[in-house]
Specification:
single chain, alpha+beta, flat, ATP binding
């Protein structure tokens, strides 16, 4: 996962394998995607939603 390089995938920076196991990841300024979408659901127009879907599909295809 550290080698993933895609603009729509949060980067894995490092891993601590001792207990507790920790993943160090790139900061998502707006938080978790699902929470952001639910909290702002009335603020999105159709064009923005289509753009988000394209970006998500691109990341999944990668």
């Amino acid at each position: 996962m550290q080698k993933f390089d895609h603009p729509h995938i949060i980067k894995l920076i490092g891993v601590c394998t001792e207990q507790p196991v920790l993943l160090i990841m790139e900061l998502a300024r707006l938080g978790e995607l699902r929470s952001y979408l639910v909290a702002n659901r009335s603020d999105f127009d159709v064009i923005t939603l289509v753009l988000y879907c394209e970006q998500l599909a691109s990341a999944l295809a990668y």
